[in-house]
Design goal:
The protein is of the alpha/beta class. It is 40% helix and 17% strand. It has helices at residues 7-14, 18-25, 33-45, 71-87, 104-113, 127-135, 160-173, 189-204, 221-232, 246-258, 277-280, 292-307; strands spanning 58-65, 90-95, 115-121, 140-143, 155-158, 179-183, 214-216, 240-243, 268-273, 286-289, 316-319, 322-324. The strands form 2 sheets. A 6-stranded parallel β-sheet has the order 2-1-3-4-5-11, sandwiched between helices.
Amino acid sequence: MTRAATLAEIAREAGVSTPTVSKVLNGRADVAPATRQRVEELLAQHGYQRRRGNATASPLLELVFHELESAWAMEVIRGVENVVREEGLSVVLSESSGRLSLGQSWVDGVLARRPTGVILVLSGLDKAQQDQLTSRDIPFVVMDPAGDPGQDVPAVGTTNWDGGLAATRHLLDLGHRRIGVVAGPPQMMCSRARIDGYRAALETAGIAFDPALVREGDFHHEAGHRAGLELLGLADRPTAVFAGNDLQALGLYEAARESGLRIPQDLSVVGFDDLPIARWVGPPLTTVRQPLTEMAEMAARMVIDLARGGRPATLRVDLATTLVERSSTAPPASAATPGHLTPPPPGTPRR
């Protein structure tokens, strides 16, 4: 077994002093960029990892989002808070401004703060950034990874494929045959899995997948509204739509109202997430429950256990999704003519 290099040996190889290597390890800013890069390369090359107990971690859990503005993020924060309260830790929130990858400035900040651990929501780390956190003995877990986090990276997700399958089967069981879908960003693994589940349900029922009924969104309300207007404007419009998340489903609600359609009498809608607002809208939204709070709690417990020297039995955990039936879905109106949008008579209240 090869002996790990010491800081003094890395310093000699880099041509710098041992205190300079220590500054790089601790995320200090007063190191020239070229020197920092050289030291980081050598730390990674030698597989250096700070021995547990050599430095005291801050009583902080770093929670990183690619976006913080949605109710989805609040459910995740609630789950992490449930755990850190019990552990006597605090939460530091940061955002990558919509990017699914994190910049070096964020990594430098984490190295300086030395949190107990890091939870990355959707975002990921490249190999060099993973090596930097590992060398400082800062554990990290990815929650709901946007891409493949890698076999060695602890991750907590949900059964997105099963959720897409359940949503579409529910609509098929009600008698719908033209079922549209508003997907999420194609580069996100969760979005692709939900669409794959949708497609599998159709094909199992003997219904050909129709690309004309598929629209891509970005998991925001505006995307659901825009895609909804396009789908409902088709000559042979869908009688039901599966939205990739609840926010896009709410955009579909708005598109249906503008198109003179009632939910669920003229159009059935299924969402994904089961955010609190899904119960409050009119009509209440049928959706696939993604256990966000439980996922966040598990990610927090996993990273804290790693910080204490534990090793999870499995590095990848997927919690189950469940279909929650409410009032936004119903059998298609038998008298409706496909492609013909008939608005309700004047004065008819719209739900």
